[in-house]
């Protein structure tokens, strides 16, 4: 786990840095996705809701399109999917406790699980490992974002 | 999957400040859900589009002014349409309004409504 400008960034995740979301391949060909600590910080930290679009369940969503919406007193906006895939399920715990996503963004606060359509090609477009963390760090520095 | 079109008709204005944040919030949320969103301002809603007014309307004491919610919606890509008849109602001229608002007749409201999956009125 790297800590960059006070933000936790596990180096084993695949990041769509521009959109502050991550993807993690799980067993059985499923990919879990969620928001990063940076997204949690930018939202103001206390969410009123994080809602996966019900219409998306069972449907393919293209990389970059909205998977869910995030609402706080400071911010309302989309959670884009880092990969193209069919949405298998949403994290139901977020319905009652949306702040799982801000308090434990890489663990209990995951947003959805997808069956990826093009994982092998798309993972090349995501940032991962030490290089990924460095790319994210560059963005945080350029935009003067920190989680401290 | 094609994006859905939705419209929010905004009739509330400075006389009912607590009613003036939620419609913009819903508009921003609809954009985040990949909808194409139009806000159609008429009756008192048009007053919020007058230069300098939205900054002075506070839905909650000590909170964000309506101008903040309005700008968030505009920045997110919500289309702002204002009804010409309501301009007359309030003796407004086009140059009195903030940038980014298109003036249209009432018939446009019906045409947009016909294309929309959902229409809300506040």
Topology record:
The complex is a heterodimer of chains A (148) and B (122).
Chain A: E1 2-4, E2 7-9, E3 14-16, E4 21-25, E5 31-35, H1 37-42, E6 47-52, E7 60-61, E8 66-72, E9 76-80, E10 85-90, H2 93-96, H3 100-103, E11 112-116, H4 119-122, E12 127-128, H5 129-142
Antiparallel strand pairs in A: 1-2, 3-4, 3-12, 4-5, 5-11, 6-8, 7-10, 8-9, 10-11
Chain B: E1 5-10, H1 22-32, E2 36-41, H2 66-76, E3 79-83, H3 84-89, E4 101-104, H4 106-115, E5 118-121
Parallel strand pairs in B: 1-2, 1-5, 2-3, 3-4
Helix pairs in contact in B: 1-2
List key phrases describing it:
heterodimer, A: 148 residues, alpha+beta, OB fold (Dihydrolipoamide Acetyltransferase, E2P), three-stranded antiparallel β-sheet, globular, B: alpha/beta, Hypothetical Protein Ychn, Chain: A, five-stranded parallel β-sheet, 4 helices
What's the short story on this structure?
By secondary structure, chain A is an alpha+beta fold. Chain A contains five helices and twelve strands. Chain A is globular, with a radius of gyration of 14 Å.
Rg from Cα of chain A: 14 Å
* Range of strand content of chain A: 35-45%
Strands of the widest sheet of chain A, in order across it, are: 7-10-11-5-4-3-12
Q: Care to count the β-strands of chain A?
A: 12
Helical amount among residues of chain B, as a percent range?
25-40%
Number of domains of chain A: 1
Largest sheet of chain B: 5 strands, parallel
State the CATH class of chain A.
Answer: Mainly Beta
What oligomeric state do these chains adopt?
heterodimer
Would you kindly provide a written description of the structure presented here, covering whatever features stand out?
The complex is a heterodimer of chains A (148) and B (122). Chain A has helices spanning 37-42, 93-96, 100-103, 119-122, 129-142, and strands spanning 2-4, 7-9, 14-16, 21-25, 31-35, 47-52, 60-61, 66-72, 76-80, 85-90, 112-116, 127-128. Chain A has 148 residues and is an alpha+beta fold. Chain A has a seven-stranded antiparallel beta sheet with strand order 7-10-11-5-4-3-12. Chain A has a three-stranded antiparallel beta sheet with strand order 6-8-9, with no helix packed on it. Chain A is globular. Chain A starts with a strand and ends in a 6-residue tail after the last helix. In chain A, 42% of the residues are buried. Chain B has one domain: DsrEFH-like (Hypothetical Protein Ychn, Chain: A), CATH 3.40.1260.10. Chain B has helices at residues 22-32, 66-76, 84-89, 106-115, and strands at residues 5-10, 36-41, 79-83, 101-104, 118-121. In chain B, helix 1 runs parallel beside helix 2 (66-76). The termini of chain B are far apart. The model of chain B has no long low-confidence stretch (mean pLDDT 95). Classes of the chains: A alpha+beta (148), B alpha/beta (122). The interface between A and B is small, with 11 and 11 residues.
